[in-house]
Amino acid sequence: MSSRAEQKLRTRRALMDAALAQLSADRGFGSLSLREVAREAGIAPTSFYRHFSELDELGLALVDEGGVALRQLMRQARKRIARDGSAISTSVETFMEYLGNNANLFRLMLRERTGVSKPFRTAIKAEIDHFVTELADDLHRVAEEQSKPLSDSRLVAEAMVTLVFNQGAEALDATHKERDELKVKLKTELRMILVGSQTLARRKAPQKT
Predict the structure, then answer these.
(1) Three-class secondary structure of residue 27 per DSSP
(2) Whole-model pTM?
(3) How many CA atoms lie within 13 A of 56 on its CB side?
(4) Tens digit of each residue's pLDDT (9 = 90 or more) over 23-46
């Protein structure tokens, strides 16, 4: 890669980091201005357009990055699960690690998931759907391996992801003690969903005569 291309990538990264740095519990992406993001990144506002056509395009790039980062982290968690067992516990701990390292990315996805921008809502829905699909496949595979079928692995995955996102919103600004309590609660709730689905599957199964 040429030095010019490398510089362009660095500047693009600086713009994305500048936007993320200005997000907080009290400030959403919609309140950012192109001028202040450019200033935070150390470039002239006119130079912004060499990297993004508008501020929303930068935001969509962040959404994509947030979704990819979460999926990659959860794929690593699967390897830990295969080694150590305890799928729910490992997954919750991994997700909380993600929150700790990507708080503002998660804030962006939470807020814009139900925001006024249709492109944002569509992009975030796509990221969540990717995550649900991977989780549903994992749940189905593990259920088959353990001979503990689920009534509907896709619905289980959707319920789990919805629950995790909601609890993640609470965990963002929680104290260390509160976050530990949330983790215990979340693990229990996820087990309830899993056991409930296993119970429904047993009830639906044809009875042996």
Answers:
(1) strand
(2) 0.84
(3) 10
(4) 988 888 989 999 999 999 999 999
If phi over 0 gives left and psi between -120 and 50 gives alpha, with beta otherwise, what is residue 85? left
Q: Phi and psi for 24 in degrees, rounded to 5?
A: -160, -175
E strand or H helix at 35? helix 34-41
* End-to-end CA separation in angstroms for the chain: 69
CA angle in degrees (0–180, nearest 5) for 78-79-80: 90
Crossing angle of helices 55-84/103-113, nearest 10°? 110
pLDDT of the residue at 141: 87
Cβ(23)–Cβ(104) below 8 Å? yes
* CA–CA distance, 78 with 35 (Å, rounded to integer): 42
* Cβ pair 96, 179 in contact under 8 A: yes
Three-state DSSP class for 150?
coil
The secondary structure of 46-91 as a DSSP string is GGGGGT-SSHHHHHHHHHHHHHHHHHHHHHHHHHHHHHH--HHHHH
Six-digit token string for 18 = 């500048």
The backbone torsions φ and ψ at residue 89, rounded to the nearest 5 degrees and listed phi first, read -60, -45
Structure tokens of 33?
């201005």
